[in-house]
Amino acid sequence: MAEQIEIPRSFPGAGDVAGKRVVITGASRGLGRLLAHAFSHAGARVALVAREEKDLKEVGDELPGPTLVLSGDVTDEEFNEAVADGAVAEWGGLDVWIANAGISPIVAGPLETDPSVWRAVLDVNLTGAFLGARAAARVMGEGGRIIFTGSVLGERPREGLAAYSASKAGLVGLAKGLALDLAPAGITVNVVAPGWFDSPLAQHWKNSPKLAAGVLDHTAQRRWGDATDLAGAYQFLASDAASFITGTVLNVDGGYLLV
Ligand SMILES: NC(=O)c1ccc[n+]([C@@H]2O[C@H](COP(=O)([O-])OP(=O)(O)OC[C@H]3O[C@@H](n4cnc5c(N)ncnc54)[C@H](OP(=O)(O)O)[C@@H]3O)[C@@H](O)[C@H]2O)c1
């Protein structure tokens, strides 16, 4: 008989995040708030990050598990370092950093896009993720997980969103580069790329019959993402079952990239 793989006594649970210490940026509303609920319900300890402290406290009050509220701007290097230190001071370590804060302030072509808007989008969506990953990597040990919220628009843009699409495409390159750099430390770096979800950020599309129809036309499943559709991807990548997955993009888009 050919030599066989030795079967382990047990397998890590895919998506099991119980006891994990998790930072979630952009946690005060939309997808970040959704992720905070999902991780907290699954037994993780979560640190909620955004600029508005009042909104974060409201989210914290909704959650079943232990919560840390840390308000500040992800474009601020010192703030990111303080979040990492705050998680370690509270929990003795940090397992997962989800860089999810993002903005999409314009729907306009390049001539209507003021360079200051371009810079702001890159600053929050891309530089903010880098600064977060940098702070996380300093305090994380073996088994650390960094997850960026990308977007299908990084791979397949729509009109008027060049800055946003560039920032999200940039996250893929950033994740791949950091995956290489941080592999020796046992830290994985991946991107979850959502398709269309009904959040405050997406209201411009949701409220325009033309744009909303375009979303459905370009989504194979002909629907927007539901509240239960997204968090599983993050929980899988955060769990011990995903320790050999790094530098990848996991699209959660109902087939947006197929149509
Ligand atoms: N909704 C979708 O369909 C969709 C699809 C693909 C990807 N995404 C991505 O998913 C992520 C979340 O989007 P969303 O739809 O949940 O948007 P959202 O509802 O507008 O929430 C954005 C979050 O980011 C925070 N934030 C913004 N700028 C920040 C900064 N400089 N520093 C710290 N926190 C900041 C906001 O809180 P404060 O304003 O209080 O800081 C808020 O908590 C973004 O990266 C977005 O690009 C969304």
Examine the secondary-structure arrangement and name the CATH architecture of the largest domain. Answer: 3-Layer(aba) Sandwich
Fraction of residues in β-strands: 5-15%
Q: Report the structural category.
A: alpha/beta
Bound molecules: NADP nicotinamide-adenine-dinucleotide phosphate
Strand order of the largest sheet: 3-2-1-4-5-6-7
Separate helix tally: 8
Helix-strand pattern: EHEHEHEHEHEHHHE
Number of domains: 2
Q: Describe the sheet with the most strands.
A: 7 strands, parallel
Range of helix content: 40-55%
Q: Briefly, what CATH class of the largest domain?
A: Alpha Beta
**DSSP strand tally:** 7
The CATH topology assignment of the largest domain is Rossmann fold
Taking all Cα atoms into account, the compactness measure Rg is 18 Å
The gross shape turns out to be globular
Whole-number mean pLDDT: 96
State the CATH superfamily name of the largest domain.
NAD(P)-binding Rossmann-like Domain
Low-confidence stretches: none
CA distance, first residue to last residue? 47 Å
